[in-house]
Amino acid sequence: MSYRLFCTDVDGTLLNNQGEITEAVKAAVKTATAADKKIVLCSGRTWLSLKFYEQQLGLHVPGQYGIGFNGGAVYEILDGGETKLLHSKLMPINIAHEIFTTLPPVIAGYEGMHMLAYNNEGYLIAEEALRDSKLFDEMVKLGAKVIPAYADERGDMYKILVHGKHEDLLEIAAFTTTRFGGKCQTMFSAHTLVELIPLDVDKGRGIEILAAHLGIRLDEVIAVGDEANDIAMLQAAGLGIAVANAVPSAVAAADVHLTVSNNEDAVSTAINEYLLQP
To answer: Residue 12 — left, alpha, or beta (φ > 0 → left; ψ -120 to 50 → alpha)?
Structure first.
């Protein structure tokens, strides 16, 4: 089978545990794009954050594409590095306000737990009180905006996040699934991060939309990931690949389970052994 589109998750897959793209991965991506293969980052991150990694890989140029917000945003790179949204799905502000009102008293009972959100411009937003948290330095790197209060927001949201200890987040995820079921989805995107995202949004849908735009069949697509929010794209793609450090649910959804992890150039292995093979 000849594959034409390669979609990779970012955190825990493309990046090693130091948050870096290794030289081996960069070289593999360069070889693949030279062979006229489409390499696309498919992440829960905003396109504003993905730009940093796309530039390292030579992908932030006209004619390239990306998938952000777990499939909630599918975009094309234009001249001058501008981003054109091909598809966008947000959480209605009335649902976001219900979460903003209901969730803070619940998470207040857990040490070191914080709520964040992404607004309709793709920016990470946080209330002023979060400035004193250890999380703030990480947020600044993502271009965070500090606001007086979530309740003051009037635009729809791409997603709402809860950051905390994994064992605590298991309880939060159970609460939000029950409390907001039918209004939004709850999923883990990392060991310490639970996301509340719009209904009918997932990475598999994002891949379907992009593949249709490019005239590529789904059986010509490879998807690589490690987390629960990657399951839909691993199932949607013609070939789903889980890296060695993938969570059990992602492994179960994949066609291939690599023996190398994100710290061992897993994306390079996936490109060389599957995308570039005739």
So the answer is: left
12, amino acid identity: G
Residues 6+ apart with CB under 8 A from 18: none
Instruction: For residues 166 and 172, give the distance between their C-alpha atoms in angstroms, rounded to a whole number.
Output: 10
Token pair for 277: 């093979």
Provide φ and ψ at 140, rounded to 5°.
-60, -40
Residue 139 has pLDDT above 90, yes or no: no
SS3 at position 68: strand
Whether 101 shows a pLDDT value over 60: the answer reads yes
Question: Cβ distance 204 to 233 under 8 Å?
Answer: yes
13-54 pLDDT tens trace: 999 999 999 999 999 999 999 999 999 999 999 999 899 999
φ/ψ of residue 14, rounded to 5:
-70, -40
Pair of tokens at residue 96: 């976001």
Q: The pTM is what? A: 0.93
Residue the block writes with tokens 């594959």: 3
Alpha helix (H) ranges present in the chain? Answer: 23-34, 47-56, 93-107, 136-141, 166-179, 203-214, 231-236, 248-253, 266-270
Indicate if the alpha-carbon torsion angle 137, 107, 195, 163 is positive or negative: positive
Amino acid at 222: I
Distances (CA, A) of 78 to 59, 63, 89, 235: 11, 7, 21, 30
Q: pLDDT tens for residues 180-213?
A: 999 999 999 889 999 999 999 999 999 999 999 9
Q: How far is CA 111 from CA 107, 116, 169, in A?
A: 8, 16, 11
Cα 219 from Cα 143, distance rounded (Å): 36
